[in-house]
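Weekly structure sync, notes
Attendees: PL (lead), two postdocs, one rotation student
Agenda item 3: pending single-chain targets
PL asked that the sequence for the first pending target be pasted directly into the notes so everyone works from the same version. It is reproduced below exactly as submitted, 221 residues in total.
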Amino acid sequence: MMDSFVTQDKMNTLVYELLSAETWKAKIFPLIKKEVSQISTIKSYMCMYHEAAIVNLLEVMLYHRTACESSEDALVELIDYCYRKFVEVENNSQFYLKQQEGMKPDDPKAYLNMDSVKELEKNARDIEFSCAMICFSLIRFITDHLKDLSVPIVHQLMENNDIPCILVPLLELKPWIRKNAKGEKEKFEDQQWKVIPKNEETKLPKIEAQIWLTIYNMFIS
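Predicted structure, written out during the meeting:
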């Protein structure tokens, strides 16, 4: 599949579609969310999930050096996209700190009484978080192939966006860790929240490992 995308020069198209989806969600969705919420649940959810689907596909593609090299023109925009996601997570630090202190038990009545607009907004927040977590992998894969990429890519990472500077506060914040209503620690892994067994609480989560590898790549390569 990766070879087909590279041969047909579709990597740049994927990044273009990703930025279009991001812009739609930021500029258009707030204006039409009441109308969108009246559509069937699956259709309205898919409107929001389009961005996450593209990010997932890019995660698979950019694991390969050939895909990174073939999309150099778009990598600058992709790095900007990842940076915006990281900043958004940092801006919501208070929310993630509260999650780490412990979540309140779910009230079934609250879900039953939730109107369609609030349900759609909740789905949008969940998808936004999922996209941000995938961005850690995207940045790591780009830095894995840094020596084979052009100078503008390095300049975008180190000078324009200063990726290490935004990653360090996120390492301290750890938004991928939370406590559920039962007081159990959970980690966000493989696009879902999983309870951390007691004997694995000191084990480094995958997302955190991605950040350390990114920092290593950027300073040691």
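Discussion points:
- The two ends are 29 Å apart (CA to CA).
- Residues 116-144 form the longest helix (29 residues).
Action: rotation student to compare against the earlier draft before next sync.
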